[in-house]
Amino acid sequence: MKVDLVVTRFHEDLDWIGDYRDRVFIYDKSPTGNTPNLGREAHTILYHILDKWNDLGDVTMFLQGDPLEHGFGRGTVFRSNGLSYLGREISDQFNEH
Fold it and tell me: Do residues 66 and 17 lie in contact, with contact meaning Cβ atoms separated by under 8 Å?
């Protein structure tokens, strides 16, 4: 299962991503970034979906540069071998359905 991590940032520190590097897409909307600062994160989400349409992950997580500040939760852990949310693998949660 391909799990994409799509992050929209402005000046936030991205150390929280840790070693998770499998399929990480970072859209930097700062003045020196790689993405125009238009439409808040909704613009970036739509851009990513359209740009990667033929190679979207089975699961795509769209997050802001500081997800803890924006309500993703402190139970989230990003690890080199996958994503865990409150101790359960994200991929396991989607495989149950």
Answer: no
How far is residue 4's CA from residue 23's CA, in Å, rounded to a whole number?
5
Cα dihedral angle (63, 8, 69, 93), rounded to 10 degrees?
Answer: 10
Predicted confidence (pLDDT) per residue in 32-87, tens digit: 888 888 888 888 889 999 999 999 988 888 888 877 665 555 445 444 444 444 34
Q: Which residues pair with 6 in a beta bridge?
A: 25, 62
**What is the CB neighbour count within 10 angstroms for residue 97?**
4
pTM to 2 decimal places: 0.69
Q: Which amino acid is at 68?
A: L
**Spatial separation of the C-alpha atoms in residues 24 and 43, rounded to whole Å:** 18
